[in-house]
Amino acid sequence: MTALIQVDQLEKTFLMHQFGEKRITGCRGIGFTAHKGEFLGITGQSGSGKSTIIKCIYRTYLPSSGHIRYQSERFGLLDLADAPDRTMLAIRKEEIGYVSQFLSIMPRMTALEFVMEPLLDMGKNETKARLRARDMLAHFNLREALWDTYPKTFSGGEKLRLNLARAMARQSRLLLLDEPTASLDEASKETVKERINDLKKSGTTMIGIFHDLDFMESVVDRTYKLEHGLLEEVM
């Protein structure tokens, strides 16, 4: 079976100028492979480097060394660790989704427009994008009264559900999830679990980082633990 993504000897270090140019290791020697429709879960203490791995794959962090070989539908096999910025922008737009527990949104964009935006960028017409966005907002139990309002007033849980609606509406080939159940109640977690299982059945590959181990174990296929910057599979 051909891997969708293969990470090999990934390392990220940060240069901290305020400490006399001290180098801090975010992660090192990271390696794993994920296939189509597979969900990998990564655990570890806060500050262990879990988010660093996800951000290197998404390339909001530029890896210091190593390889992230990704089988793109548009570009073929490429290394996300050193792919051109223009290629990465296209990959994010068309193939790789990212869910953060934090909401980043234009101040004058409504919740409905926020979910529609990536669908329009992918070429869907406005009518289909609007219908899909409305379905996803309803699926994640965001009240219809909120759809045409600005999300800066939303609660933490509402913002996270909005992020999930936006990312999962796209049906990306690869979906990266950074604490996807933070701030969610049990009913909302069940909704997320349903959608994750739907995405797995449709072939979406997912890599997620978690503190909620019970939820993680209910959805992932394989688990890795990050400790002291090193990643090991939990058997």
From TrEMBL:
Keywords linked to the UniProt accession: ATP-binding, Lyase, Nucleotide-binding
InterPro entries per record: AAA+_ATPase, ABC_transporter-like_ATP-bd, ABC_transpr_LolD-like, CP_lyase_PhnL, P-loop_NTPase
An example Gene Ontology molecular-function term: lyase activity
Pfam families registered for this protein in UniProt: ABC_tran
Domain ABC transporter, residue spans: 5-234
PROSITE patterns: ABC_TRANSPORTER_2
PANTHER family found in the cross-reference section: IMPORT ATP-BINDING PROTEIN
Name by which UniProt lists this protein: Phosphonate C-P lyase system protein PhnL
Species this protein is from: Sporolactobacillus shoreicorticis
Organism lineage: Bacteria, Bacillati, Bacillota, Bacilli, Bacillales
Gene: phnL
